[in-house]
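Quick one: examine this chain and its backbone structure tokens and tell me how the chain folds. Here goes:
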Amino acid sequence: MFLLTKSYQDLRKRSNTLFGVDFILGENNLNIYLNQGVLNSILPKVSKNLLMTQLEEQLSKVKGIKTTRRGESLQSKSKNEDKWDRLLANGFDPNRSGDLLIVLESGYLPKSSIDLHHAQGTSHGSGYDYDTHVPCIWYGAGIKSQEVLESTNITDIAPTLREILNLPKTGQMTGKPIDAILNH
């Protein structure tokens, strides 16, 4: 379990101590949002880079936080970056995502202080194998009995079904058929 409330309160205190103002607008789903109006009102006296560095340093001291990523840097990440950059960049929306994103250590869950079942369950939202590895069972005529252990993406399901059902190709599918299922 990971209790977020105190960590965000500490960020607000740090911001006030260092800069005389609270830049934190809010947090949601491991995203920290900065108050752009407050930030813009004091630029260039305080650089955004300095502020972000201070927030990252504060969060790096919190048990249960693995790393952070800046939202603006995720917009330009290529597929050659590390695992966390790729995962966060794939889900990043510049209009909805935070200015600073948090990745928790393996086994930690984001929970609020008002969660009634704070010691139970899972979030299914991490990038760890225990949250991303999902078994998929294919059954039907022409599909041989086998266990396929290769990694596939959820976007590969629709193209595989399209092939099995012999449906026309559309330009909307981004995945590729799973060859092991199709016996190619």
Summary: The first strand starts at residue 2 and ends at 3. The chain has a mean pLDDT of 84.
